[in-house]
Design brief:
The complex is a heterodimer.
Chain A: H1 3-12, H2 17-33, H3 35-38, H4 42-66, H5 74-92, H6 95-120, H7 124-142, E1 148-149, H8 157-163, E2 165-166, E3 169-170, H9 171-189, H10 191-201, H11 203-208, H12 213-239, E4 241-242, H13 250-260, H14 272-291, H15 299-318, H16 320-340, H17 344-352
Antiparallel strand pairs in A: 1-4, 2-3
Helix pairs in contact in A: 2-14, 4-9, 4-10, 4-12, 4-13, 4-14, 5-6, 5-7, 5-12, 6-7, 6-12, 8-9, 9-10, 10-12, 13-14, 13-15, 14-15, 15-16
Chain B: E1 16-27, E2 30-41, E3 45-49, H1 56-63, E4 71-76, E5 79-80, H2 88-93, E6 96-99, H3 111-116, H4 130-143, H5 163-176, E7 181-185, H6 193-208, E8 212-216, H7 220-226, E9 229-234, E10 237-243, H8 249-267
Parallel strand pairs in B: 3-8, 3-9, 6-7, 7-8
Antiparallel strand pairs in B: 1-2, 1-4, 4-5, 9-10
The chains are: A mainly alpha, B alpha/beta.
């Protein structure tokens, strides 16, 4: 086997490579367009403080999408667990207990989602839409629609452990990257992750090879719930406050991060490296556009363009047949253009060659 | 691998590797199996015949742990099985391997994952020993049925394979785990003629290795050739049983056609 070819192949086959390239290109564009901001380190420290909740959510959602499911309820977990954290830290005087109960609340939401989907058979997009309303609504009831300030929360060691600073470096960046790394191992190297991939690929096949489809799906939903709760803890601590609407903005951003990263919309294939890059792209676009002088109004439109380009790019890379069809279509289109153009004479000469 | 098989299973004594007793299976209003008695002796190849919808696939899905019968008993190696706990995994533990009809592989997954999914080689905490799984997968590919050795490795995904190659992987998987009972549901459907030969000699090898096989096949000639005993199902009931040599291929064919016609008349 020729070594050169295999090296090339391996390089191209590196997980998430195209999307990492897009991320780097984006950083370079911002560096050129707004050198004052993007050549300093501060902006990156700010990203490392704000992206982690998004990254934790997207990493967990990647596993669920790999299994062919979706969760729309996590914005409400962010609200619910944030309230649980704030309320019980205040009432019980222990942030550790607050953290534990917040994670438990997330697990409970996830378990209910899992049971609805895997045992009762409600499609996940519907089940989790309903539970989004349910838990979001209950959080408003619990909190009486109020926001809390957690002013002195930084007196606790736990706060420093989760969202403190090492110099200027935000600790939550380490936590979120650790979560992504562990979930990568779970997806790619653990029995559970392999089962999720097969379930997403074809649930019937998974069943005849001995995968307990319902049980594994419920586990995936519980994992998603716990991770959403953890993201909520990072967010609530970082903001030092709780809003009962605090999860709302995450739904579309998290899904965009997952799919920009190259995880298959159809299940069975997922890239956590891609999700990490996708999360940073989504997290950077806003600050980047504002810094380059474009109005903030443009953010969503630009995300849309990046999103579409990434999804199309992934399909073309993943499915060679579609790529050849696409190239062929492109070629015939340009041939047509050439023939109908006024300078058609040169084409004829080239054709006669 | 095939030669090394009978070590443990032959040592223990049992008469039937699998036995179904008075098994009923209903799906809603449809009676897929009714009052079926069915056994497979050790070291016996049982050919299972019947028209589409006769209940063959339902029967083997019960044997392999995919479906739970509505009523009835299942014995494995003369021991009554607790059906509440019976599953595909349990069947694997009891050394029953099944090559199901149609799709049994994850399309987007690499071959090494497909060979081991459901019973991965794991280390501590359930993490997969990827290196070992890939090594074994590569060895298996070299002698699997259906491969002519062009650039397919353990890393190839199933969708790069032809129908025959897919079937080869499914059979290689069953061969690797050295079962006492191998269930083959239409294993030659997607295969070229030369590869059908290989499957048939594999089935004969199963017997030579002291193991048993349930063989479902549309081609009566193939079943007639390899089976020690033929069991005919019709509309969920066992309607005939023949030991090898008791019925000629021509008579068998006539009988199956008669069943088919009786069925279409009954349906009309």
């Amino acid at each position: 086997m020729p070594a050169r070819e295999s090296v090339m192949k391996r390089l191209l086959g590196t997980e998430g490579l195209p999307i990492i390239a897009v991320l780097l290109a984006l950083v370079m564009v911002f560096m050129i367009a707004a050198p004052d901001v993007f050549l300093g380190y501060r902006i990156y420290m700010s990203f490392l403080a704000t992206v982690p909740p998004l990254l934790v959510l997207a990493a967990a959602l990647t596993l669920l999408v790999a299994a062919g499911e979706i969760d729309l309820s996590f914005p409400s977990v962010i609200a619910l667990s944030g309230w649980v954290l704030g309320y019980f830290t205040h009432v019980l005087g222990s942030p550790w207990l607050g953290l534990l109960l917040a994670l438990l609340a997330g697990a409970l939401v996830g378990w209910l989602n899992g049971v609805l989907v895997a045992r009762i058979g409600v499609p996940s997009i519907i089940a989790t839409l309903a539970t989004q309303f349910l838990w979001g609504g209950l959080t408003t009831v619990f909190s009486q629609g109020l926001s809390y300030s957690l002013g002195e929360v930084d007196q606790y060691f736990l706060w420093h452990l989760l969202v403190g600073r090492i110099g200027a470096f935000p600790v939550q960046a380490l936590w979120s990257l650790a979560v992504a790394a562990v979930l990568w191992l779970v997806l790619n190297r653990h029995r559970f992750g392999e089962h999720l991939l097969f379930i997403g690929d074809n649930a019937r096949v998974a069943e005849v090879v001995g995968v307990n489809v319902a049980r594994e799906k419920i586990r995936a939903f519980v994992l998603m719930g716990v991770m959403a709760a953890f993201a909520s803890v990072l967010l609530t601590f970082e903001n030092r406050s709780f809003f009962n609407t605090q999860g709302g903005g995450y739904l579309l951003e998290v899904m965009a991060a997952v799919f920009i990263g190259g995880t298959s919309v159809f299940g069975g294939r997922a890239s956590l490296v891609g999700t990490v890059a996708g999360s940073f792209i989504i997290g950077m676009v806003e600050a980047g556009l504002v810094a380059t002088g474009l109005q903030g109004f443009w953010v969503r439109a630009v995300v849309g363009v990046v999103f579409l380009a990434a999804v199309i790019g992934h399909i073309l890379i993943e499915e060679p047949e579609r790529r050849t069809a696409f190239v062929r279509a492109l070629r015939s289109r340009t041939d047509l253009l050439r023939k109908s153009s006024p300078g058609g004479g040169s084409t004829e000469r080239r054709g006669a060659r | 691998m095939t030669e090394a098989a009978p070590k443990e299973s032959a040592a223990r004594s049992f008469r039937h590797v699998v036995q179904l007793e008075k098994v009923d299976m209903t799906f809603g209003k449809v009676q897929a199996l009714s009052n079926v008695d069915f056994k497979v002796g050790r070291n016996e190849i049982v050919g299972l015949l019947g028209d589409n919808g006769a209940g063959k696939s339902t029967l083997i899905k019960i044997v392999s742990g995919v479906l739970r019968p509505t009523t009835g008993n299942v014995w494995v190696r003369d021991r009554l099985v607790n059906l509440d706990q019976y599953s595909v995994r349990k069947a694997h533990d009891l050394r029953i391997e099944t090559v199901h009809q149609g799709q049994t592989l994850g399309e987007k997954q690499p071959l090494w994952r497909n060979l081991f999914v459901g019973r991965q080689i794991t280390g501590r905490f359930g993490f997969i020993d990827v290196k070992k799984e890939k090594e074994i997968a590569d060895q298996l590919l070299r002698r699997a049925i259906g491969f002519r050795g062009h650039g397919i490795t353990a890393e190839s995904t199933v969708r790069d394979l032809s129908g025959g190659e897919r079937q080869g992987i499914a059979i290689a998987r069953a061969m690797y785990f050295e079962a006492d009972l191998i269930v083959l549901d239409e294993p030659t459907t997607a295969l070229a003629v030369s590869e059908v030969r290989k499957v048939l000699s594999f089935v004969e090898g199963v017997k030579a290795g002291g193991r048993a096989c349930i063989y479902i096949e549309h081609s009566l000639a193939h079943v007639h050739e390899v089976a020690d005993r033929l069991v005919i199902l019709d509309r969920g009931k066992v309607v005939g049983q023949f030991a090898k040599g008791e019925i000629s291929l021509a008579d068998l064919t006539a009988r199956m056609i008669a069943l088919h016609e009786g069925r279409t008349h009954a349906g009309a």
